[in-house]
Fold this sequence. Notes:
Structural class: alpha+beta
Strand order of the largest sheet: 5-7-6-1-2-3-4-8
Shape: globular
CATH architecture of the largest domain: Alpha-Beta Barrel
Distance between the termini: 28 Å
CATH superfamily of the largest domain: MutM-like, N-terminal
Number of strands: 10
Helix content: 10-25%
Order of helices and strands: HEEEEEEEEHHHHHEE
CATH class of the largest domain: Alpha Beta
CATH topology of the largest domain: N-terminal domain of MutM-like DNA repair proteins
Amino acid sequence: MPELPEVETVVRGLRRALLGATIDGVDIRHPGILRSAPAANFLAVEGSRVRNVDRAGRFILVDLARGAATLHLMLHLGMTGQLLVVEEAAPWAKHTHAVFQLRDGRQLRFIDPRRFGRLDIVTEGSLPERLRRLGIPRGQEPLTVAPDDFVALFRKRKGPLKNLLLNQALLRGLGNIYADESLFRAGLDPRAHHVSAPRLRRLRTAVRHVLRSAIRAGGSSISDYVASDGTRGWFQLRHQVYGRTGLPCRRCRTPVRRIVLAGRSAHFCPSCQSR
DNA sequence: ATGCTACCCTGGCAGC
DNA sequence: TGCTGCCAGGGTAGCA
Length: 275
């Protein structure tokens, strides 16, 4: 499940592989993955060069230049999406929905069995305008948000803390795994309401630590996730609570509990995490 | 504005 | 063995 660390790993791989490469065309094999722009709009990538690869939350942004014109490609991996840079002769994976042909004979392939992933493209407009048209949430980046801003984001909000962490309009990039892992590290119950400022500061530190550790590990590979060169991450081996329902807490041996919040499983240690 | 639920979609797995 | 039914969840539409 690609969350911020997985997307960051993919972005770093794409940057290494694609910067300066020329795109000769794109084949949208399954238009259902398009978010808003019709398939015809993607014809514009022909002859463009990759100028930058970046990330906003879980959204991957590829800046393309063609002459004086710029194009902005958005890719979202959804639940099971993969972006692979391969030689064009590489074996064909099932559920390959889009293929970008590179002039040097390689291909960027978008593969997504569950088809929750999305592609979009815009051609112009100011940065905020582009981000809006690409559907990028307005939330803060968890790795750069200042302590006071982090506290301000959550202080006057209602609802369980876990739900707030999943709200991409507040903080973008956290998903179910890293929300649970961050709450465990901060010692906070996912059901906690109206959390105090000192506890929120602790949560910010925990989020940063968990995300950075996961990025160093190349992300968590649970089912489909792989980096753009096909390698798997190993942070799943370090999960403290996610996916460990009924197993002993690694800190205190109390069985890990699973409840449902925001329509998702929330995993936590009832002894180590307090409200 | 905000917070909630239903929906999309397929592979993997438990249970019979 | 083979079938059925359920579960996983990111983002968004639609609702109160």
